[in-house]
Amino acid sequence: MIKNQPKTLKYMQVETAVRELVERMEDGHRLPTERDLAKMLDCHVLTVRKGIQPLVDEGVLTRRVGSGTFVNPRSNDSRPPEERIESDYIGLLIPNKESLYCDRLVQALADNALSNEISLRSAWVNDFEKDVPNTVNEMVQSGCTVLILPWFPSEMNHQIWNFVSNCPVPVVLPELVSGLEHLCFESKDVFGSTSVLEVELICKYFLSMGCKRIHFIGPENTSSPLLQQKITAYATFAAKNNIEAKFGLFDSSQGSLMKLAKQEAKYKGDLAVISCDDAHAARFMTAMHMQGLEAPTDYRIVGHNDTSIAVNTVPPLTTIRENFAYISRAMIQSAKALSRGGSYQSKEMVKPQLVVRESCGGKGVAEKMDLPQCEIILNG
Prior knowledge:
Layout: H1 10-23, H2 34-41, H3 45-57, E1 61-64, E2 68-71, E3 89-95, H4 100-115, E4 119-125, H5 132-141, E5 147-148, H6 157-166, E6 171-172, H7 193-208, E7 214-219, H8 225-240, E8 246-250, H9 254-264, E9 272-275, H10 278-290, E10 300-304, H11 308-312, E11 318-321, H12 324-339, E12 353-356, H13 363-368, E13 375-378
Parallel strand pairs: 3-4, 3-5, 5-6, 7-8, 7-9, 9-10, 10-11, 12-13
Antiparallel strand pairs: 1-2, 11-12
């Protein structure tokens, strides 16, 4: 049973309890179901799932769809933490914010680490000024000599800068942060270059379908460097191709979104939309539906990240698929180099992947497009 730990979040208590359970189990044995564990630990099934995830990330457990969760064979490496190779232990700090992009990347990092026999120690954190110091100290004491921060929301920029600047071990960053550019997994020369190609690809795709009015939508907060690069790429393409650049930026409120939808409804039948991500695309599609408009009949739209949202919109969303395998590989290579006192930043130019579904009605166009700098995937 979960011990009385009032200052510890419930899922962290679940993680501790499951770790203790695993220590008493033999290799290959199956854990009780998540539902049974929830009853045993007096919590919700989703809390159990979140508590188990760090053990999956570290390779302690393996989930098999339809079969259950199993204990992986223990390592034969009996060396104490201080005698392990530096890259054997990598800490993963995950902001406790909802992000499908982050979820996909964390899974890719776990897969990459497992295939390369690297142990990950994962921790979900709420506040990088209050919560993280103790968490990092525990990770360092357990043998972590480097950390990876796979993602963070733009409003955390100041917290992240202070945390990384004072962290006792190096931290791999997911983007360029002023003064800490050397810690980004990609070099300054190539960071964001894929985003520029992606925007140009979508614009050319729309032009191939005869679209003349192409708008860009996204969050009202544009402080993210990647978002800024996308906006710049869109504005540059529009200027070069004599297209009126128009931005639809909205906040989290329903009123802001509905105001944008009413404005865009005026262009029914002559509108193509680039969304900064799938989540904003889905919200926009819902608002347009409330205006009586449907994609692709009344407008066309492309998202970004190819998350589960893209498959579940009506109609399914055409989107740009992020290369999570590449990002995870580059982040772990960077972490390994930093743990040895060196440095590594990827300079690889990765081809964008356009996943064509139904929100643009342009599968026939996509089949005929000649764009060697990208990969086109039909039907997702």
